[in-house]
Description:
The protein has helices at residues 9-16, 60-74, 81-88, 95-107; strands at 20-29, 32-41, 46-56.
Amino acid sequence: xxxxxxxxxxxIGKALHVSHVLEGSARKTGAWLHINAQLIDxxxxxxxxxxxxxxxxxxxxAIQSEIAHKVAEQLHxxxxxxxxxxxQRPPTADLSAFELYTRANNCC
Length: 108
């Protein structure tokens, strides 16, 4: 959260000791979800990949899996079978519980 709103991805990459950052935004309107995500190479400040998702809120975990696959693909990451299963398995079937959990994590 300390990097929210910061534009200098090169400095963020140096501070975190990473070559890439994933940034994005999410907007919920009723039962509809709009997500923008982009993968940025912090060494060159170039966009490697970007995606936009407009779906029903109940598809949030499917979107999360899609983004994870796209990022791993762009980074040429080797993903084990166990990691693939973990990426595809939703953390919960109860979206209300997930929303409350997420709010609680973000409040403090």
